[in-house]
Amino acid sequence: MGQLELGKKWLDMKLTMVLGNDFLYPYLDDRVYREAATLKEEGWDVRVVCWARTITNKSLDHLPQNAEYKGIKVIRIYQNISPKKSILIKRIIQHRRAMRKMAKKIEETDPDVIHYNDFNTLYSLRFGGKKGNAKALYDSHEDYPLMLKSAVSPFFVKMATRLEKRIVKKYVDAVITVSPPILKRLNEVGPKINELIMNCKILKDYDIPETKVREARNIFTQKLKNRDNIGFEESNNKFILLYIGSLGEDRGLREVISVFQTVKKEDNLILVIGGHGAIENEVKAMVEKIQCAIYIGEVKSELVPLYTKACDAVNMMMNPKEEWHKIAMPNKLFEAMAAKKSIIASADTIYGDVVKKEECGIVIPYGDVKKLKEVITELAENPTLRMKLGKNGFNAAVREYNWEKQGKKLKALYKRLAGDGPKKRNS
Is 344 in contact with 313 (CB distance < 8 Å)? Predict the structure, then answer.
């Protein structure tokens, strides 16, 4: 059977996306879902093979092996993995077992295209999964070797770099990624089909009624009132600074919390932090000691647009001394743009350069607490400035940084990748 078209839609094309954590729990993987939904609209038969665990390695073995979400089939594999403090070789063996199971499930789906999300799933290619004329696409969400630098020895970083290069060169037909420097590095490996697909947002998801936005703002102030009984009133005249994301090292969390340690109720400033990660318990403990800050826990992806619209500015500090932070294009950049919110960003980063170019926020040196406090105060006291910055960001989102444009690039790449259409099937 060759390629069939109905309008712009393709028929009989089977796509298997592969994910190293659960697709649906504890929250929906936003990038993978947007890509899957976009390709499903084009007529692809989409399924996601995923590892039933959280990104912090918590097992999700209680979840059903087969599920469905908005027409996307979900197939889970199960494999426990030891804590990070365990012997490394033990964790490697467990990971290899998971990849063998992953490869077997991929083969069972009989795909035309296999879409591997991040390097940990790409490794399953070593154990099979790609058969016949099936094409392999590598979707690199991060620069994996650079991420490893702060966690393992230089020897393992070099090994990971070589292994990624070898697998991409031998098995991969196309590459997509989120940041220009990552794309440039992977282009040098060899795949002729490649594209920059950034984590931009669907702008209509941020078209939220003002009544709902006010309700969300009042939820934040009510949480403070309930916690400390300090009598916060309606939140319309408050300045709310938001951070939702990874609660890890080098994210400027300790610095922004330290700024709010001296904030009082009458200053009308509120810090809202959501997410999870390595220093989650520390962040929670620090926030509980502060009068004008709250920790809202892990945030479901469907609530991120509302909470971003409900704030006044987004804190987006990342330490550029970590090379993978320096080249990152974080979700929060595109969330803030879509929500018309001003941004506080780190200098000497790619996303900081975007903020500066689009004039949608204020860029400061990472770790400069005094400067951070000055910027927060300036934005809090100058609503005209922050509205101007937010509008600039939204205009940039409409012009370039939106999922509608990214989705078109993804569809075009898939048409190039599929070539003459699906492999012949026995009927």
Answer: yes
Residues 163 and 260 placed together within one structural domain of the fold: no
CA distances from 332 to 165, 202, 254, 308, 338 (A): 29, 13, 18, 9, 10
211 and 195 belong to one structural domain: no
Structural domain containing residue 245: 203-399
Q: Are residues 102 and 86 in the same domain?
A: yes
Q: Which two tokens stand for residue 58?
A: 């918590």
| Token pair of 168 as six digits | 């991409």
Which residue in 143, 212, 181 sits closest to 353, CA to CA?
181
Residue 229 and residue 180 share a domain: no
Tens digits of residue pLDDT in 124-173: 998 998 888 899 999 999 888 887 777 777 887 888 889 899 999 999 99
Three-class SS state of 31: helix
pLDDT digits (tens, 9 = 90+) for 335-374: 999 999 999 999 999 999 999 999 999 999 999 999 999 9
Q: What is the CATH number of the domain that holds 342?
A: 3.40.50.2000
Contact 55, 21 (CB under 8 A): yes
The count of structural domains within the chain is 2
Examine the domain organization and report whether 239 and 260 are in the same domain.
yes
**423 inside domain:** no
Rounded Cα distance, 116 and 139, in Å: 6
What is the full DSSP assignment across 104-116? HHHHHH--SEEEE
Please tell me the distance from the alpha carbon of residue 162 to that of residue 172, in angstroms, as a whole number: 15
* Whether residue 194 sits in one domain with residue 340: no
Buried b (16+ CB within 10 A) or exposed e, 322-352: bebbbbbbbbbbbbbbbbbbbbbbbbebbbb
Q: What is the DSSP string of 90-144?
A: HHHHHHHHHHHHHHHHHHHH--SEEEEESHHHHGGGGG----TT-EEEEEESS-H
Is the same domain home to 50 and 27?
yes
pTM: 0.90
Q: Give per-residue pLDDT as tens, 69-112.
A: 999 999 999 999 888 788 878 988 999 999 999 999 999 999 99
Q: Long-range contacts of range 218-226, CB-CB < 8 Å, 24 or more positions apart? A: 220/270, 220/272, 220/294, 220/296, 220/310, 221/270, 223/294, 223/296, 224/270, 224/291, 224/292, 224/294
Cβ contacts of 353 within 8 Å, gap of 6 or more: none
Question: How far is Cα 350 from Cα 335, in angstroms, rounded to an integer?
Answer: 16
